[in-house]
Amino acid sequence: MRIIVFGATGMVGQGVLDACLRDDVVTGVLVVGRTPTGRSHPKLREVRHGDFADFTAVREQFAGYDGCFYCLGTSALGMSEADYRLVSYDFPLAAARALLAASPDAAFCYVSGTGTDPTGKSRMMWARVKGETENALLELSPRARMFRPGLITPLPGTTAKTKVYTLLYRALTPLAPVLRRIAPRHITSSTDIGRAMIQTLRAGAPHRTLSSADINAMAAVSPGAG
Fold this sequence. Notes:
Elements: E1 2-6, H1 11-22, E2 28-33, E3 44-48, E4 67-70, H2 81-102, E5 107-111, H3 125-140, E6 144-148, E7 151-153, H4 163-182, E8 187-189, H5 190-203, E9 209-211, H6 212-221
Parallel strand pairs: 1-2, 1-4, 2-3, 4-5, 5-6, 6-9, 7-8
Helix pairs in contact: 1-5, 2-3, 5-6
């Protein structure tokens, strides 16, 4: 299968990309981003693109892919609702529309998060916006799947663009085995998200919206597990 990855330089995206490159089921990976991943692999091809609200210039390159793993996201901390909506609603919808225009049968796997509110009643701005995004994506394609992880442990060696996140990754990585034992239904890893996404394309998913427990169960039976 051939996969497009958005957000491959972020914490989740780095683990998802690693899972794709390690899995023999995946034959090709196209990364779309503003900055290079810094990785080199026979299966990997990268497209630099600056305007994530409009993929017209690169849309033709999305043809012939089986699915898209959308991992791009940002914290709502300190952001206005308009700015957060641009990144968390407008960007993924633009990517999904471009993908489906070029590959109508492709699956769209979107990384959301625990606490997302599709009813629009939450007092938390990010939860309402993410809920709107989920609703729009699910309506856009019957093959859209929403991934709602809770706490995510990063791929060892994950780099971040800010010092705070770099320190957080360093703290979480050695604690991962303990955290998984304490609360296995609420914790997953970035690589397991990738494995679960691959499994979604390979064999389907139990639900259109997937929790950390669903993600872990699917990752455990993915061809790349182990």
